[in-house]
Amino acid sequence: MNRIVRRYTLLIIAVYAGIISFAQTEDAILKKHFSLLRENIPDARKLIIIDSVKKILSEYAVSDSVFRHLFSDLRFLGQITPPDSLVKLLSWNLVLADGDNRYYCFIINRSDKKSSPSCLLLEGEYREEPPEKDKVYSAENWYGSLYYDLRPFDSGGRKYYILLGLDYGNSLVTRKIIEILYFDEKGAPRFGADCLSDGRSLSKRALFEYSSSAVMSLKFESDSLIVFDHLSPFSPDLKDNYQFYGPDFSFDAYFLRNGIWYFKPDVDIRNRKK
Question: What is the pLDDT of residue 6?
Answer without folding.
Answer: 52
